[in-house]
């Protein structure tokens, strides 16, 4: 009887797509014949590939589940050939395949304004080419699309666009998105943080603050009806960055108040403050 694909990948029947993909990647790396020289590694690698090919395809997945429920000894939709490692890792599934050149990695610095709207960055890279039969350096232009809301650390991969060499697969080029430091804002996921410094009088008596946004306009906050305490936060909904997988939704703009206390006070002012503070305490 065919082996249970869920058991092969070590996931439950209720596993979602991300869990199935993570399990496959982990096992494929562990059992790949180039890294694992055990006699059973190649066969295990094939089984892992077959299981993933079915469970990652919605139609085949549904057919497979129906066959399991009906007790069919062979699940339909199972691929007859070996699932290629190239599906996720750009490599063939057997040990006789060409070896890959190591990937070329670049940091791609992007401003928060560019992440807010999404953009295309034109990047010039240098690689080794075998186009003439001899290794030589050449420059290549790649247009890298940055999705709105992209997280720092997100990788944009260009398959086989890197260094070439005889008897080897061309290398991948990987651009890792890095947030540029911003003069006004900090980033926390999809939220944007803006710091406002006010003095003690403004904190106690109120003030008006004009808060800039990534979109170029300003939002006005009036605090005259309240007392601002240290580390007080005002949240402006929907004025942060878009969510990369749901660009119609946005994070928030968080306004953090930093209160600047005086280093010294004149004795007269101290006495006046003490007189004011007594009824405030009594009223609590």
UniProtKB/TrEMBL annotation:
InterPro entries: DnaJ_C, DnaJ_domain, DnaJ_subfamily_B, HSP40/DnaJ_pept-bd, J_dom_sf
Chain ranges of the J domain: 4-68
Cited Pfam families: DnaJ, DnaJ_C
One GO CC annotation: cytosol
Keyword line: Chaperone
GO terms (BP aspect): protein folding
GO molecular function terms listed in the Swiss-Prot or TrEMBL record: protein-folding chaperone binding; unfolded protein binding
Name of the protein in question: DnaJ protein homolog 1-like
Organism: Glossina fuscipes
């Amino acid at each position: 009887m065919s082996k249970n694909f869920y058991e092969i990948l070590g996931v439950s029947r209720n596993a979602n797509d991300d869990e199935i993909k993570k399990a496959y990647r982990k096992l494929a790396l562990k059992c790949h014949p180039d890294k694992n020289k055990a006699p059973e590694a190649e066969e295990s690698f094939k089984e892992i590939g077959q299981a993933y090919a079915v469970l990652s395809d919605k139609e085949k997945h549904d057919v497979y589940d129906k066959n399991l429920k009906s007790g069919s000894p062979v699940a339909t939709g199972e691929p007859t050939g070996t699932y290629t490692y190239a599906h996720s890792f750009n490599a063939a599934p057997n040990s006789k395949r060409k070896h890959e050149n190591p990937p070329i990695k670049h940091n791609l610095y992007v401003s928060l304004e560019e992440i807010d709207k999404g953009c295309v960055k034109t990047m010039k890279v240098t690689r080794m080419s075998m186009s003439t039969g001899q290794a030589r350096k050449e420059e290549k232009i790649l247009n890298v699309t940055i999705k709105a809301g992209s997280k720092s650390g997100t990788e944009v991969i260009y398959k086989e666009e890197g260094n070439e060499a005889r008897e080897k697969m061309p290398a991948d080029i990987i651009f890792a998105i890095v947030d540029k430091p911003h003069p006004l804002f900090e980033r926390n996921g999809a939220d944007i943080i803006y710091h406002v410094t006010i003095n003690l009088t403004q904190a106690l008596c109120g003030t008006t603050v004009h808060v800039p946004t990534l979109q170029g306009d300003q939002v006005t906050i009036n605090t005259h009806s309240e007392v601002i305490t240290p580390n007080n936060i005002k949240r402006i909904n929907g004025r942060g960055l878009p969510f990369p997988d749901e660009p119609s939704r946005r994070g928030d703009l968080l306004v953090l108040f930093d209160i600047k206390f005086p280093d010294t006070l004149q004795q007269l002012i101290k006495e006046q403050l003490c007189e004011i503070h007594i009824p405030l305490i009594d009223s609590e």
